[in-house]
Amino acid sequence: MDDFLSLALQRQSDRAFDASRPVEREKLERILEAARMSPSACNAQPWHFIVVDELELKNKVADATSTRLLGLNHFTKQAPVHIVIVEEKVNLTSGFGGWVKDKNFAWVDIGIAAAHICLAAEDEGLGSCILGWFDEDKMRKLLDIPSGKRILLDVIIGYSTQADRPKKRKETEQVISYNKY
Ligand SMILES: Cc1cc2nc3c(=O)[nH]c(=O)nc-3n(C[C@H](O)[C@H](O)[C@H](O)COP(=O)(O)O)c2cc1C
56 near 123, Cβ under 8 Å? Predict the structure, then answer.
C-alpha cells in the first residue's frame, strides 16, 4: 500500500473469510504492535487484547457474537483470529480528566486501538471487522475474564473472500466544516 489515504479507502468491514487460511504469526504480531502503540488519554492504555486463535475456543467465541434470531454476525466463525478487547482501569490523570470533562476516555482509547488493528490488518493484506454486538457474559466465561471487567469490542481478522464494495458515507459538506459548525 503506497499511501495512507489508499489504505483507509481500501479498508472495509469484511464479512466473509477463507476459514482454511490461517493468519501468519508475524503479521498478527505486527498488527498487535500497532494496537499497543495506539494513543490514549494521558497514555493510560486502558486495554487488554486477548488473541483467540485456538480453533475450538475461537469458534465458541464466534458463537457468542452471533444472534440467529436477528441474523447478526453469523459470519464470524470464518475468521481464524478474534482479538477481544477488554477495558482496563485508566490511570489517575485520565480518570480525573474524564470525570471533570464528563467523557469516557477509555472507550475512545479502545476505539482508536481497534482502528489501528483494522488498518494494520489491511496493510498486511488481511481483512477485518469490528464487532460491538456479542454476548458479553458468554465471552467472559469462555475467556476467563474477571466478572467486573467490560469487554468492549471483538475485532476479527483473516483473509477476506469478500469483494470490495463502494463506501457509503455522508456527503463531505454534511460532516466537515471549516472555522464554524
Ligand atoms: C464500534 C463498532 C461496532 C461494530 N459492530 C459490528 C457488528 O457487531 N457486526 C458487524 O457486522 N459490523 C459491525 N461494525 C462494522 C460497521 O457496520 C461498519 O464499520 C460500517 O457499516 C461502515 O462500513 P465499512 O467498515 O465497511 O466501511 C461495527 C463497527 C464499529 C466501529
Answer: no
- Structure-block grid coordinates of residue 157: 481478522
Q: Which residues, 6+ apart, have CB-to-CB distance to 93 below 8 Å? A: 42, 44
Tell if the pTM clears 0.90, that is, is over it. yes
Among protein residues, the one with the nearest Cα to ligand 1's atom 3 is 132
| Atom 10 (ligand 1) nearest CA | 131
Question: Biggest alpha carbon distance in the chain?
Answer: 53
98-147 pLDDT tens trace: 999 999 999 999 999 999 999 999 999 999 999 999 999 999 999 999 99
Beta-bridge mates of residue 50: 84
- Could you tell me the domains of the chain? 12-162 (3.40.109.10)
